[in-house]
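Before relying on records like the one below, remember that each one covers exactly one chain. Contacts with other chains, cofactors or solvent are not represented anywhere in the record.
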Amino acid sequence: MRKDHEEIPQIRPSLLDPPQIKLSEEVPIRVEEAHRGGIILDKPARKKLRLKLPKIKFGNKKLVYKLLAVFGLIFVLLLFLVIIPGIGLFRSGMKLRASVDKLSASFDSQDIAVVKAELANFKSDFESFKGAYSRLGWSKVVPVIGAYYRDGTAALSAGTHALDAGDIFVATMEPYADIIGFGGADATGGDSANDRIEFLVSTIDDILPHADELSEKARLAREELTKIDPNRYPERLFGKEIRSKLKNYLTQAEEASNFVANSKPMLEAAPYLLGTDGTRRYLLLFQNDKELRPTGGFITAYSIIEVTNGKIQPVSSNDIYNLDNNYTPSIEAPRVIREYIKGPYLISKNYRLRDMNWNPDFRDTMELFIPEAESAGIDDIDGVIAVDTQVVVNILNAIGTVDVPGYGQYSTSHDERCACPQVIYELESFADVEGPIVWSENEPGKIVFAPPNYLNRKEIVGPLMNTILSSALGQPKEKLPSLFEAGWRSLTEKHILLYMFDDKAQAGAEAFGIAGRVTEYDADYLHVVDANLAGRKSNLYVTQEVLQNIEIAGDGTVTKTVEITYQNPQDYDGWLNSVLPNWTRVYIPKGSEVMDVQGFENPGEVYEELGKTVVSGGFELRPKGIKKITITYKLPFKASGEYTLMIQKQAGTDAPLYSVNIGRASEEFYLRTDRELKFDI
């Protein structure tokens, strides 16, 4: 039995003295404790809370100070070498971008005073940007990053030279601003394109003294641009195209620099070409690019024109067949022409004038053609100008519909009957109203069927060209930029070719790239030349794609495969679109070792011509058909460092799609003019 005192806990006094509490002090009592103890507080007493961090003891305080010093130094370096310069560069870049927009808009104003002012503002902002960029100069010695910085430096240096050239050009043209359409609101120039062209011709002598300065600035800009390697940049960044855009910008800039650098010889030849020192008389050849031949198309008609102070005056025009009727063939035609065309070549194996543009080098072709044409009645000319149907289309795009008396209206509106511009349909339909010419199989040389206009089936050409010329020259001054663009495209895209008897004028045309020459080139080279041999107008529809795969071995040996794909997507009509008998010649570097050729139904020879090795052969392409030619060969040299490739465009073609693969690098583009590619390997 337990005792009661054992069940009750005993509270004993502490051995320590009880705490002394002063009445003036606040006694900290937690609210929850007060409630448990039955104490009611009107206002609970509070004391400020203090957060105490645990003390960390370092065994080596010197190491801590060193680490802090290192981090501090890194921060200071980043601040002064990267962050502050980067912010400054960004701000300068935004200001420069706005300046570019204003400069571009100033050209739309057609006021040279505005252009000059905005050019000065742009130069100021450009110099500020260069200064901001130079503050990152330390990065040029940093691996990897340094290469990108040096690219930027090269681009800025090229820009400086380009701006200097711009100043020279604006200063040169300022006295003639009102005539060329940049006089602003106070322009007092003539009211027609003819007035402005006439004045431009008269200013050439004033421009020539500045040509050397412009050419030198262009040369310096081009040298700087060659230092930039776009292949070191990513193809895409944050979902945006980077490498392809950079390549496009560099290509455009280099083409512009080349244009300015090569303009001097052309400017020097311009007075002769435009007849400022006397009337010039030219043979104008019309090449039908829808029936493609090596220099641009089948020679279908011709005209004699006279040029005086830039004004063009048509003299006469005729069908090439009529000229051929006055010609006595005396030069043997190539075997391919004789075998494919047959017809007149069953009588004589000698060339007809209309087939003499077999050599893809226009100068060489004209040196063969002109003496023979003179024997048929062409005389007293100063040179030859060849044009194709695309020139007509380009001009009509600029001036609109024209009305040719006695023949109707012509335009570039889409014609469903041929899926082509209306003017092309009308030209072809006039030439072949009822169909092709049929030659007798039993009586060589005899025609058993021909369309109604056969005897003078190209008589439309003269009236059409006369109307187009008079309409173009009579256009209001506002049309001059569009007309200039039409002429510029026609020249640069090889729809107009020139051959001049005067050596200086010919040299100017060659330097400017409008003479149709096969280029001498000491690196990789490709030139695909096609000839439509009695395949109607199938080239109106045929497309071409060219793929080049380049493999470089460890010792530098280059093995190359070229694939050429032809396609005709349209239906057979027996008139415009028919079976295309095509003869292809592929010009590659001289001395190349041809390893394999596939796809030709009529394999030709491998031979040398125009300083190149030539792979040739024939095939037929049917409507709705596809044909592929594959050529594999080794180049006669080994590659190292930079790999360069020249691709020449055949005159008269539109813009075939080209693709080039070399290692990890690749290019894809539409070939509108001759193009040089460069790759780092």
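The mean pLDDT is 84.
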